[in-house]
Amino acid sequence: MRQRHGAQISSRPEKTWRGYLARRPHLFQLDPKGPEAMVRFLPEGFDSGP
């Protein structure tokens, strides 16, 4: 994220990407923690609507 988009999690209040994503459930769906955990982008959360 930093290399590609210049986004540094250390500059955000959540301090972890998991925390950042979890605070935005309308944008992302998170699996429980674990080696197979995935994050899903919820496109409707980004829809600007009519």
How would you sum up this structure, described in words?
The chain has 3 helices and 2 strands. The longest helix has 6 residues, at 17-22. By secondary structure, it is an alpha+beta fold. The chain is globular and about 30 Å long. The chain has a two-stranded antiparallel ribbon with strand order 1-2. The model has no long low-confidence stretch (mean pLDDT 91). A hairpin with an 8-residue loop joins β1 (28-30) and β2 (39-41). It has one domain (2-46). The protein starts with a helix and ends with a helix.
**Biggest β-sheet: strands ordered side by side in the sheet:** 1-2
Counting H and I runs of at least 4 residues, what is the number of helices? 3
Structural class: alpha+beta
Q: Estimate nothing, just give the exact number of structural domains.
A: 1
Topology:
Elements: H1 2-5, H2 17-22, E1 28-30, E2 39-41, H3 43-46
Antiparallel strand pairs: 1-2
Short description:
This protein is α+β, with helices and mostly antiparallel strands and 50 residues long.
Record keyword descriptors for this entry:
globular; 28% helix; alpha+beta; two-stranded antiparallel ribbon; 50 residues
